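Per-record layout

source: Aurantimonas manganoxydans
name: O-succinylhomoserine sulfhydrylase
length: 398
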Amino acid sequence: MQKKTDTARKLRPATAMVHGGTTRSSFGETSEALFLTQGFVYPSAEAAEARFRGDEPGFIYSRYGNPTTRMFEERMMALEGAEDARATASGMAAVAAAMQCQVKAGDHVVAARALFGSCRYVVETVLDRCGVACTLVDGRDLDAWRAAVRPETKVFFMETPTNPTLEVIDITAVAEIAHAAGATLVVDNVFATPMLQRPLELGADVVVYSATKHIDGQGRCLGGIILSSAAWIDENLHNYFRHTGPSLSPFNAWTLLKGLETLPLRVAQQTRSAARIADTLAEHGKVNKVIYPGRADHPDAAIIARQMTGGSTLLAFEVAGGKEAAFRFSNALEIILISNNLGDAKSLITHPATTTHKNLTPEARTELGISDGLLRLSIGLEDVDDLLEDIEGALSAV
Ligand SMILES: *Cc1c(COP(=O)(O)O)cnc(C)c1O
């Protein structure tokens, strides 16, 4: 038997993000090569036949797979401890494919109600049109997950920490409930990033990312990825992915590979800055409350201590004075930009009630804790003292 040596050795994240998954061409290039090609040629008709039969390894068509895209998938697999992965054109392509590939009409899905708006549209509307029912629950209420289970329940779906109120759901506990029901648990791990939370190790079956966020981290391109066991990908995703085509462009895969090289550094720095900003905001008289998973006063601090290794690069806070005060604060900022994106090198502020969550009814927003004074702050790579001065200056304008 062939012994697995160095290549199988588990590298620490910072090393895996620089070297993981690299496949060099015959030129021996240092940096990852960008294979801008739709298709591949075969040395003979017999070779083409063998590759289509699956008897010979190799690429067939870039909708199925591409060398640059595969390097991105393998680097993410090394980080996540996943056996296989498929990279997608956006985070939403990843969520939609991860859900749709494993359900059929008559099945049932349970999802935590605090979801990124488009994820909520997929589970509530897209799946419903295909005859897949969905029950939304308060993700922190384990009895609610248990009570929602039906004989036909196939998938549990959640995001933690949630957007924008940074609630934290116990992945291990929800995975146990899912598995007892014969369902799989899919976790959208965008807010924690693979640096701060490892859903597969905590019991989840599938993890999805919008690589648009921290993985690119520099505001350049969209991307996504689905990671799981080789068996889950083979049985559920492999054919669905090939024939529906949510594939990532090789150019974007190359950009994301470069993003991964600096992911550990960026997330560590942005998390340190976010923690300091959260503490400063919590002391300020014009701030009603701060929600930051790295603070001891977070309502889910006990779960966070078990499943996260840092507080995240995002925080939410409520300024006294509702929408008017929130708008005045946002408009007075000079460095922090108004944008609905997150995970970027540039610090970004969002007013969820009028942008990302405007489509929810006022009741649904209240249920999720999205008040008119709530702001979500994504901390970037600027000097934290400049950010603190910017925030203090803008608060004095409120
Ligand atoms: C941004 C985001 C998505 C969607 O990703 P896109 O790359 O924009 O399609 C999904 N889930 C969460 C939690 C996100 O923040």
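summary: The domain at 262-395 is CATH 3.90.1150.10 (Aspartate Aminotransferase, domain 1). The radius of gyration is 22 Å.
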